[in-house]
């Protein structure tokens, strides 16, 4: 699995891209809900990590059916509905944000070296992984202080930096008038 750094960077990028599309969310708290919604959507399918930690069995609980396209879609819609309820702004925009975040997570983990994802559960339990991985991935089984995490960071930091730079440039070139309001 890719590290939380990459997933959160993608979530932040989605927030950056979504913000002009939610011009009615101008106050601090509403902007915070939008930020938390985008970050939450990008990591929501890793909620199974908590179950794994609770049962001291990460491999048994983490990256199972939660990382299928089907569950990611449902989880993304759930985040979107929650965002809508909390802010009263457009349901379709919130669901787009939620689903984009959850599916981005599945795509990133698909592109990560590891045991693959049960992408098409419940149709099949088979695992699928990209034949051309982009991310080294995090090996939680090696412990928190493993030197292998440095390799993961060295792999992900340049990719995250490039992503944030691209999104910043894109958002800058598509600035709309209302951004300065809030
Ligand atoms: Zn994951």
> How many β-strand stretches?
0
Indicate the low-confidence ranges by residue numbers.
none
Largest sheet composition: none
Helix content, binned percent: 55-70%
User: Radius of gyration, rounded?
Assistant: 17 Å
Q: Name the shape in a single word.
A: globular
Cα(first) to Cα(last) distance is: 36 Å
Specify the structural class.
Answer: mainly alpha
Report the bound ligands by name, code or SMILES. zinc ion
Give the number of helices.
Answer: 7
Q: Mean of residue pLDDT? A: 91
Report what the structure shows.
The protein has seven helices and no strands. The chain is mainly alpha-helical and 182 residues long. The protein has one domain (4-174). The radius of gyration is 17 Å and the shape is globular. The model has no long low-confidence stretch (mean pLDDT 91).
Q: Can you give me a brief rundown of this structure?
A:
With 182 residues, the chain is mainly alpha-helical. 59% of the residues lie in helices and 0% in strands. Helix 1 packs antiparallel against helix 6 (91-110).
What key phrases describe this protein's structure?
182 residues; mainly alpha; 59% helix
Strands, helices and their partners?
Blueprint: H1 4-18, H2 28-43, H3 48-54, H4 58-61, H5 69-87, H6 91-110, H7 148-173
This protein binds zinc ion.
């Amino acid at each position: 699995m890719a590290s939380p750094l990459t997933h959160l960077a993608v979530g932040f990028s989605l927030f950056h891209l979504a913000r002009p599309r939610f011009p009615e969310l101008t106050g601090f708290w509403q902007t915070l809900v939008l930020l938390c919604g985008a970050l939450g959507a990008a990591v929501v399918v890793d909620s199974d990590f908590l179950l794994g930690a609770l049962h001291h069995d990460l491999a048994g609980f983490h990256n199972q059916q939660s990382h299928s396209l089907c569950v990611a879609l449902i989880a993304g819609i759930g985040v979107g509905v929650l965002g809508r309820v909390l802010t009263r702004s457009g349901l379709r925009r919130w669901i787009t944000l939620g689903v984009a975040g959850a599916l981005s997570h599945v795509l990133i983990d698909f592109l990560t070296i590891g045991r693959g994802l049960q992408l098409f559960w419940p149709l099949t339990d088979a695992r699928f992984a990209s034949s051309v991985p982009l991310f080294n991935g995090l090996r939680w089984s090696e412990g928190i202080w493993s030197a292998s995490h440095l390799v993961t960071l060295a792999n992900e930091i340049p990719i995250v930096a490039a992503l944030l730079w691209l999104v910043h440039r894109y958002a800058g070139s598509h600035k709309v008038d209302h951004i300065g309001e809030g």
